[in-house]
Amino acid sequence: MERCLVIGSGCAGLTAGIYAARSGLDPLIISGLLPGGQLTMTTEVENFPGFPSPVQGQQLMDAMRKQGERLGVRFVNDLAEEVNFKKHPFSVRLAGGSEIAAQAVIVATGAAARWLGLGSEQRLRGKGVSACATCDGFFFKGKDVLVIGGGDTALEEACFLTKFASSVAVVHRRGKFRATSALVEKAGQNKKIRFIFDCVAEEVLGRETVEGVRLKNVASGAVQSVKCEGLFVAIGHEPATSFLKGQLALDEQGYILVKPAGFVVTDTPGVFAAGDCADHRYRQAVTASAFGSMAAIEAGKWLENKGFV
Question: Between β-strands 199-205 and 193-196, what pairing exists: parallel, antiparallel or unpaired?
Fold first, then answer.
C-alpha cells in the first residue's frame, strides 16, 4: 500500500514528489513513457528560476530527479495504463502488468503539443521549430517567424511573438479563422502580422536551423516558399488523460477538471491533478512545478484528515 502515488515525472510530478517526501509521505513516482516529461525534448530553458545561464531541458529534469532521490522519492519506470478511482484504496495497473494500491494519488501526466507530422519539423525541433511562444519567443528577437494554426492559441502566440520578432506570418489551412472575432481583429490590426489562408506546410526548410517553410495551397495546389527563421506550431495540445476516462471528470478536450477554490483538487476526494494535464492556459515548467507543490500539500492535508498519516 502506497501512501502517496504520483503518476508522471515531469516538472509537476517531480515537484510533487519532492514536497511529498519532505512531508514524510514516502512518495512513489510512476515515470511514464518519457521520464522527465516534455521538457527533456527541449534544448535551452531560459525562464526557469535559479539558472543565471540557460539550462538544457534534460539537465534540468535530471537535477530535479536527483533532488527527489536524495530526499527519498522512489521511482518505477513503467506506464500507468488503467486506474480505479471509484473505490478506496485506489488502484493503478501498469503496462508491465503489476498493480499498485494507494491511499492518495497525484496525476501529473502532462500534455503533448500536436505536431504537423513532418520529418523536417521533427529534425529541427529546438533549432527554430517550437510549440511554445512564451517559452521560446525571446530567442527570435529581430527575426521573421511563422505560426501555423487557426484557433485562439495560434493568434495569441502570433500577438505575443510581435514583442520580439520583426514579422509574424500566420498560416491557416482554411479561409477563415476558428479563433474568436476579438482575437482575429486584434491580430489583424497589428502591423507586424500578416495572414496566409488556405495553405498547409509541406516541409520545413533548412539544414541546421529553420530557413523557411514550403507551403501548399489546398485549393489551387500552388506551392510557395516563405522565408523565416522560426516556426511555431500552434494546432493544440493533447493531455495524457485517455486512461482516466470514466474515472475523473474531464473537459471536452480531455483536461482534468479541478475545483476553482482548490486548483489541484479533482471531483474524487484523495485524487489530485497537477501540471499540464489540468492546465491548458499557462503550460509552463514553473507553473507545473507550482501546481505540483500544491498537489502534494493538498494530498498531505487530505491524508492527515483521514487519519492515514
Answer: unpaired
Q: What is the CA radius of gyration of the chain?
A: 21
Is 0.85 topped by the overall pTM? no
Q: pLDDT (tens digit, 9 = 90+) per residue, 291-309?
A: 999 999 999 999 999 999 8
Give the 3-state secondary structure percentages of the chain, helix then strand then coil, rounded to 5: 30, 30, 45
Number of H helices, E strands in the chain: 7, 19
The C-alpha cell that represents 302 in the structure block: 487530505
By DSSP bridging, strand 144-148 and strand 129-130 are: unpaired
Residues 141-199 have pLDDT tens digits of 999 999 999 999 899 999 999 999 999 999 999 999 999 999 999 999 999 999 999 99
Distances (CA, A) of 179 to 145, 174, 189, 237: 20, 12, 15, 16
| Grid coordinates of 230 | 522560426
Angle at CA of residue 266, ends 264 and 269, nearest 5°:
110
Q: Which amino acid, one-letter code, is at 203?
A: E
Per DSSP, the three-state class of 252 is coil
Do residues 29 and 13 lie in contact, with contact meaning Cβ atoms separated by under 8 Å?
A: yes
Question: CA 68, CA 75: separation in Å to the nearest integer?
Answer: 10
SS (H, E, C) 261-295: CCCCECCCCCEEECHHHCCCCCCCHHHHHHHHHHH
For residue 89, is the peptide bond before it cis, meaning its omega torsion is within 30 degrees of 0?
Answer: yes
Return all residues near 287 (Cβ < 8 A) that are at least 6 apart. 279
Q: How far apart are CA 42 and CA 62, in angstroms?
A: 13
Distance, CA of 160 to CA of 183 (rounded, Å): 12
β-strands 74-76, 55-56 pairing: unpaired
Number of residues that make up the chain: 309
Residues recognised as catalytic: 132, 135-136
- For residue 133, give the nearest of 96, 173, 107, 162 by alpha carbon: 162
